Amino acid sequence: MSTQPRLAIEGLQIRIGGRHVVDLAHLHVDPGEILGLAGESGSGKSLTAQAVLGLTRTIGAAVDGSIVFEGIELMGLDEAAMRAIRGRRIAMIFQSPISSLNPVFRVGDVFVRALRLHGAPSKAEAVERARAALREVVLSPELLDRYPSQLSGGQAQRVSIAMALALRSEVLLADEPTSALDVTVQAEILDLLRSLRDETGMSVLFISHDLAVIAELCDRVAVMQRGRIVEEGIARNVLTTPSEGYTRELVASVPRIGGAVAG
Amino acid sequence: MSPLLRVRDLEVRFGDVRAVDGVDLDIPDGPFGLGLVGESGSGKTTVGRAVVRLTPLAAGSVALDGEDVTKARGATLKAYRRAVQIVFQDPDGTLDPRMRVGAVLTEGLLANDIVPKSEAPGRVTELLADVGLDAEHAGRLPHQLSGGQRQRVAIARALAVQPRLLVLDEPTSALDVTVQAKVLRLIAHLRDDRRLAYLLISHNLAVVEALCERTAVLYLGRVVEEGPTAELLSRPAHPYTVALRAAVPEIGSWEPRRAVTVPGEPPDPASPPPGCPFHPRCPLATDRCRTERPALTTVEDGRQAACHRADEVLSGAMA
Q1: Segment holding A132, helix H or strand E
Q2: Measured between alpha carbons, how far is residue B201 from residues B86, B166, B217 in Å?
Q3: Is the Cβ of A185 closer than 8 Å to some Cβ of chain B?
Q4: How many helices (H) and strands (E) does chain B have?
């Protein structure tokens, strides 16, 4: 049985002000797979995720190529059709979870509105789904009454993940979702993402500069440098025996407990 | 003989919140690194700022070479601040965007009479070389440099006044990983070359391990464990250190994660729990832990921990 990739990117080109910032030949995510997209600042990894959701046009970028999600070509899709996918079938979470929630609305207002927009038949039903989703990410449903500023970073990131869960998103684009969190909280969020994938079959594109986090979480990894993928494969193979010089340098740069800084 | 820096019973309050609540630290003459680790809100940055007298102390003392500087003012304070320099996480917030690199470094040299004006340009070139930058970088503005280069300038500026101690507050956290590795190598090099002593504040245990002989673990404004870094990380005495260590992701640990992660997040320092402040998250907590706060005591030669069950933790009760 051959499985179609859930998300397939072919020949993606992104130019900003005449500069070629992304030139991505091929990248795909299978159903239920966690793909790591690794790279340093400016490598184009976040832009790639934004292109999937059609967000790059808001920054005046020129985008070419093909992005197919479940048989639907997303490039050139009209805004109404895109809206039915963005935030619902393909959800996104960000590095700074508190600032990605509107500060003047209670968590519950944002949550219920998103569920209503994407098909919850009534407000009562939406509230019920929101409460259930919070329980699934091990948060108290009482958090629905709070404002984003009253949440810790870890709680806010869980709320964002719960929203994707309640909307039954098929793809989660996670852009450095644990980079601003403490390590103990990060470990919990990684556990949560893993168990959600196992339970729901959600696909995750996990963007991170942290190769150790990618090693812990991801099935496959693609390493980006200056807009191109320089190496791609099973995370364990790529990170233990990298074949490209750039990947080797990245892996060697990760500080490790038990290893010393070379002089 | 007194250590280079001695901090005793350091207390910092923000309103009713005790951000730092009775911290002792000793740093001997260099080359030596003391690591200060902990999560957001643990008070580690506040300790660093209090040490350089940027944040007022509510109680406690700071002494350099046995000389109390807690209430130093005027020329004494100026001399202390020359001897103890600080490097922040974000160089962008501390470099004047309109000042060229050469002027940034010259200012410190002349204000502290390190060299006569005629020798300043030569010294600027030396300082830039020390941190791995070229003489031509002196003519650049901060925005014409990369993040790593800006952090090197911030380090050069701290070194310009020939400090005896550096407070390094997350010096590489804002940098890309390949750049971070280079700045860490630079710190290791300067440490040996200049016999530097430093307090390295970091959330990254691997960074601290690479650069620090000893490490203090901070939780809710208090030191909960202190000892030689390698021993503290390989055989922790406090359950919080165990949890911190276990939560660090690693390349090469392909087995499923060990299940010693602690649930939840640190409590609100405005209303700390009774007893041991770590007990709500601690898998080993007993009734005693819920009522009686453990003091920081010697658990082994050269090692201290604030835990009623430290002996059991040392013998692997959390493994």
Answers
A1: helix A123-136
A2: 11, 11, 10
A3: yes
A4: 11, 12
Tally C-beta pairs within 8 A across A and B.
111
Whether B226 and B215 have beta carbons less than 8 Å apart is answered as yes
Interface confidence, given as ipTM, is 0.83
Contacts of B246 in chain A (CB under 8 A): 187
CB-based contact A253 B209, cutoff 8 Å: no
* DSSP percent split of chain A into helix, strand, coil, nearest 5: 40, 25, 35
**Hunting for tokens 């009454």 — which residue is that?**
A145
Across the interface, do B250 and A256 touch by the CB < 8 Å criterion?
A: yes
**Residue among A209, A252, A261 whose CB faces B184 most closely:** A261
Distance CA B95, CA B84 (A): 18
Q: Is B198 helix (H, G, I), strand (E, B) or coil?
A: strand
The span from the first CA to the last CA of chain A, in angstroms, equals: 52
At B219, give phi and psi (nearest 5°).
-140, 120
Interface test with A, best of B251, B260, B282 (most A CBs within 10 A): B251
Widest pairwise Cα distance in chain A: 64
The count of other CB atoms within 10 Å of the CB of residue B128 is 21
Tokens of B187: 């710190």
Supply angle C-alpha B36, B38, B40, rounded to 5: 125
Q: Can you tell me the distance from the alpha carbon of B157 to that of B152, in angstroms, rounded to the nearest whole number?
A: 9
CB proximity list for B249: less than 8 A, separation 6 or greater? A183, A186, A187, A190, A210, A212, A213, A215, A216
Flag whether residue A180 sits within 8 Å of chain B, measured between CB atoms.
no
CB of A251 less than 8 A from some CB of B: yes
Which tokens hold the place of B237? 């005495």
**For every one of its 263 residues, what pLDDT tens digit does chain A have, with 9 covering 90 and above?**
457 899 999 999 999 988 999 999 999 999 999 999 999 988 999 999 999 999 887 788 899 999 999 999 999 899 999 988 998 999 999 988 888 888 999 999 999 999 998 888 999 999 999 999 999 888 999 999 999 999 988 899 999 999 998 998 999 999 999 988 888 889 889 999 999 999 999 999 999 999 999 999 999 999 999 999 999 999 999 999 999 999 999 999 998 888 654 33
